[in-house]
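Appendix B, record 7
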Amino acid sequence: MRNTRNNSHSSSKSNSDKGNSGSRSGSKSKPPYDQKRNRPKNKQKNQQKSAKSTPKPRLKIDLYGVHAVTEAWTNPKRHIHGLYITEKALEGFDKALKKAHSLGLKRPSPQIIDKAALDNATASGSVHQGIGLNAQELDEIDIHDIIRAEEPKERSVLIMLDQVTDPHNVGAIIRSSCVFGATGMILQRKHAPELTGVLAKTACGGIEHLPIAYETNLTRSIEVLQKAGYFAIGLAEEGEVELQMLATQHQKLVLVLGAEGDGLRRLVREQCDALVALPTAGPISSLNVSNAAAVALFATTT
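Structure tokens (predicted):
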């Protein structure tokens, strides 16, 4: 009888322990109904918050501004990946669309976006005029390509910039080169801006028309040009030769300009055939490099 009671008591206690154990285990794996119900809601709120905080992908804009984009759009040598334009700007771009179509150029359909999207895709303060282009860079050329292209011509004027780094200046010189009929440009590879963005806009589409070569050693480049028949004229304040006289004596010229302040580097200056200074008569005796280039181009091409 004792054994039976003991066994019964032991069995009862065991069952009780199992029940309590099951209750404790259940409190961990089975939360109250309201907690279980709230978890998906919290998760959904977190997902919504994450979705709202994820920024939209930024547009890739290489060229912007009406003139820069128009000239690139109608350039058969350009590969275009995307045109982003506001509704207002699209009204004035119709002529370029028709021209590209008449030339049989493969172009993507314009994507209408708002001004804020273009503001976000371009550098702060950029005057994009409601139009931007995602375009592949033009094929790179070197100085030998320019020489071969100019060889048949009787008259040829090139321009070389020695470490001119400001994109506004370079863009303005490219524009002047196209206006006055220069036929090529040579830039120093390590110290020159890329042919995109503000430079391209300042050039007003000139990068689509002027062959531009990047070279590492400008002193060596001048020597190569001299062997090809070019007369190298360096613009420097200490120059004493008259520019227009040299322009009439030589049919193939390369005008070499240095950065503002530093001017031409010594080896580049020494490699030039002559140094000239632009004549001045007013109280200010110097011009910035883009204006000096425009005057020199006018003097040698007209």
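Remarks on this record: The domain at 143-301 is CATH 3.40.1280.10 (Alpha/beta knot). The chain has a mean pLDDT of 86.
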